[in-house]
Structures are given as C-alpha cells and as structure tokens.
Write a structure and sequence with these properties.
Blueprint lengths: L4 H4 L2 H24 L3 E5 L19 E5 L7 H10 L7 H4 L4
Antiparallel strand pairs: 1-2
Length: 98
C-alpha cells in the first residue's frame, strides 16, 4: 500500500508527500551550499499532468545540483557586457549630490 501511486495522489496524502519533499530539499540545499554546490528548483516543467517521456508518474518536484563553472563569476559577466559595449556608468556621472 505504501508504494501505491494512486493512494499517495489523493489530497491528504499528497500534502504530506509535498511537505516531506519540501523539508528534504531545504536540508539538502543547506548541505549543498555549505559544500559550494549550486542548487536550482524547477517549478513549471510539468505543471499539468501531461504525457512526458522521462517517467511514467506525475512529477511533483525537480531539483538540480551541480558545480558552477568558473567563468560564471561577477568579473566574467562584467567583462562580457563591456565587450558588447554595455558599460555601466559610475554613480558620480549619473547622480549629482547636493
């Protein structure tokens, strides 16, 4: 009975399952961030109960974990925009303080 998917999709059981998923993902996210592992959540991937080819059941939650590539740093992003000609002006050039 515990593995019966039709049983856990009823309203009461589904709320319990989603609560457990939320608690687990919160704890896992904390451990990942402590170890410099990035996390991401996907909410709308399978928001409707439509046919998809990844698995046969309903998708309740998608969480991605991984290491960030070094070139996605703030300096890299700043250099990327400067190369495109999009330079952020200095605040002194925009605001005149009186």
């Amino acid at each position: 009975n515990a593995c019966n998917k039709d049983k856990y999709l009823n309203d009461r059981a589904l709320r319990d399952v989603l609560l457990e998923i939320g608690m687990f993902s919160t704890i896992l996210t904390g451990f990942c961030l402590e170890n410099k592992i990035d996390t991401a959540y996907t909410l709308c991937q399978f928001s409707k109960r439509t046919k998809q080819n990844l698995f046969d059941d309903v998708c309740l939650f998608i969480m991605s974990l991984g290491y960030r590539k070094n070139y996605y740093t703030k300096d890299w992003k700043k250099q990327y925009y400067e190369n495109r000609g999009e330079v952020k002006p200095k605040i002194e050039d925009i605001i005149i303080w009186k």
